[in-house]
Write a structure and sequence with these properties.
Length: 332
């Protein structure tokens, strides 16, 4: 069934949001605990609330920093502010709600930004002197893949600019470029082609090789993805090779594996991304964005959409962001 490009834009943003919402319920848990506690993603989404590490219980149906920042990137593109990274950082700071589980490095930057706007470039090294190589810039980069899908060099340039304010380590740039390229390739494909998909990912890393930056971690991960698929490894099996941690070099390849393992099933992608444990909200959000960009929004179960409990960014509001991004960026 052909899916319209507009529906793929919706699928990407809504798919990323649903992955975030489901994954947030079991964030940092082990796969054993998750399997013992829940039977399915539906089961997770039917839960009312779960204890939070500190503060009030987490209300299931809320999204975390991943979606909040992704929406900022989308609005930055829609407003025509890209590639000005300072304006993106201003949007992040304006939208920031600490209870959405921001990482400590990003939280420090967003707290400091209003008083230190003139020195915004130096804020990204405030906590990590070499810049963060966490997955925090890859997790929000999907709208760039949608917006510039017809030009992968432009996707990479903009992914790096969008990473710069909070994640300025070379590995964070590489992770953001890889995830943005995955989304751009997924939204462009009408039929899944593994060789073309992995080829685009490998090619996206070459610019870093040209700068004499090591891309070994992510290149090896792409090899592991290919080998894992060839032997039919489950997402849980491959997670012991790729990792499920918060670094860009673990979470991005793991999210990509969840997609390529189930290119035709959004629900399987999210299930596996959530049940592998670790940084589940981000991995499931990135995997859901890629899957949704490929399959469109109509594959997202109605019951899952009904589980969203957000006041401002309802399903309809996120769909509207996707439609405005489509109107702004999609070429006929
Ligand atoms: Mg999160």
């Amino acid at each position: 069934m052909p899916h319209s490009l507009q529906d793929k834009f919706r699928g990407c943003l809504l798919g990323g949001m649903l992955g975030d919402i489901a994954g947030a319920v079991v964030e940092a848990e082990s796969p054993g605990y998750i399997a013992k506690t829940y039977r399915s993603v539906d089961d997770i989404l039917c839960t009312d609330s779960v204890p939070e590490f500190s503060g009030p219980d987490w209300r299931v149906g809320r999204f975390t920093d991943d979606t909040q920042m992704t929406l900022c990137v989308a609005e930055w593109l829609i407003a025509g502010e890209a590639p000005a990274a300072e304006l993106l950082l201003a949007r992040f700071a304006e939208a920031w709600q600490p209870w959405r589980r921001y990482g400590p490095g990003t939280e420090t930057i967003l707290r400091m930004f209003p008083q230190h706007r003139a020195e915004w470039r130096s804020l990204s090294t405030a906590m990590f002197p070499e810049g963060s190589h966490g997955n925090g810039s890859a997790m929000r980069v999907a709208p760039i893949g949608l917006a510039r899908a017809d030009d992968l060099d432009s996707v990479a340039d903009l992914a790096i600019e969008s990473s710069r304010p909070t994640h300025s380590h070379a590995l964070a740039y590489q992770g953001a470029v890889l995830q943005a390229t995955a989304v751009a390739t997924a939204v462009s494909l009408t039929r899944f082609d593994l060789a073309m998909f992995l080829g685009a990912l490998r090619k996206s890393l070459r610019r870093f090789d040209d700068l004499l930056q090591s891309t070994t971690a992510l290149s090896d991960a792409i090899d592991a993805i290919e080998n894992g698929l060839a032997r039919g490894a489950s997402c849980l099996e491959i997670s012991s090779v790729l990792g499920t941690g918060v670094s860009a070099t673990e979470a991005v390849p793991m999210a990509i594996y969840c997609f390529v393992r189930h290119p035709d099933s959004f629900t399987h992608v999210i299930h596996d991304a959530v049940f592998i444990g670790g940084d589940t909200d981000t991995i499931a959000s990135m995997a859901g964005a890629i899957s949704g960009a490929f399959l469109g929004s109509h594959v997202i179960p109605t019951s899952w959409l009904g589980a969203v409990r957000e006041e401002r960014y309802t399903v309809a509001a996120v769909q509207d962001v996707a439609d405005r991004l489509f109107a702004k960026c999609a070429r006929p």
